Amino acid sequence: MHGKSLFAAIRSGQCPEQIPFVPTIYEHGAALLGITPSAAASSDELLAAGQLKAYQLYRHDLAAVGLDIYNIEVEALGGHIVFPKDASMPFLHKPILAAVADWEKLPIPNPDADARMPLMLQAVRTVIKEIGDQVVVSGTVTGPFTLAALLRGFEDFVTDLLLDPAAAERLLLFCAEVGAVWARRLVREGAAVAVNESWIVPPLLSPELYERCVVPAETALIKDIRAVGQENTALICGGDTAPIVPAMLKTGTSLVMADHNTDQIVVKGACREASVFLRGSISPVLLEQGTDAELQGGIRRVLDQCADYAGFLFGCGIVSYATPPERVLRLKEIVEQLTPEYR
Questions:
Q1: Where are the domains of the chain?
Q2: Which of the residues in the chain have pLDDT under 50?
Q3: What is the dihedral of CA 49, 69, 248, 77, to 10 degrees?
Q4: What are the beta bridge partners of residue 268?
Q5: What's the rounded Cα separation, in Å, for the pair 68 and 134?
Q6: pTM
Q7: Partner residues linked to 91 by β-bridges
Q8: Domain 3-341 is in which class?
Q9: End-to-end CA gap in the chain
């Protein structure tokens, strides 16, 4: 049982003997092709080829199509993305909003025409055509807080939230609208949708500020995505999410991540109470650099804390460009070997 059938079984209330294996493959797909992240990010054919090569090797249970995922919407809004010639990731040159109210000058992007949105759509189409009958294929949407922080600059936007919360919250709702337009277009292609919000986690943002100012915009975005038939919409955030997981669950998310550096038991309990998926993860640094004994220990710690929950998925964060493929294969092998002890 793999991919779509495995998730369908879990959603129906079953606790399958197999634990879904969901490493996040972005720049690692470029490494598998022997090309730079920038090369893959600039070509729908290469981006799709990296995803398909990864699936051919790892047979993981969810394929998330993307690479420099936080650059797609901000680039379509006018941001200048730098594409390094080495193995480093493409990045935003600088924020584009001099003042929080300047978002009113920005048009909502057209996913079929603006920047690399059409490229991403074509990559999604290709991956769905090739493996969409076997595995869930997901597109990525930048969460409203992260997009606002990119547009304005992180420190400036946090200051806006404190000193001019009404204007900052209007920017958040604009960013949610941008995300909804992009998400609806991905859903039309047959993709699942995950909302990625890396910058909401403490200590970057306080739990109180997150719940009061950001949760309403995330809730609006997820509601819009569900309105077009995407019932299962993940809200992805790494780091120590335990202090904010109750607020995250108010958004209507169908999945919460319990990273290696959070209290996974606390996050699991919240997910169980809300009946949502739990993605428990080991450290991607451990995956890349740890000894085999360290890798086995890290995997067992996640299984000890999470595997008794039927909605548990095994993850490892974003697999780095430098991670050798045999390390990912070994990760999957160990998880499969240990699973009978827990299921």
A1: 3-341
A2: none
A3: -140
A4: none
A5: 25
A6: 0.96
A7: 82
A8: alpha beta
A9: 15
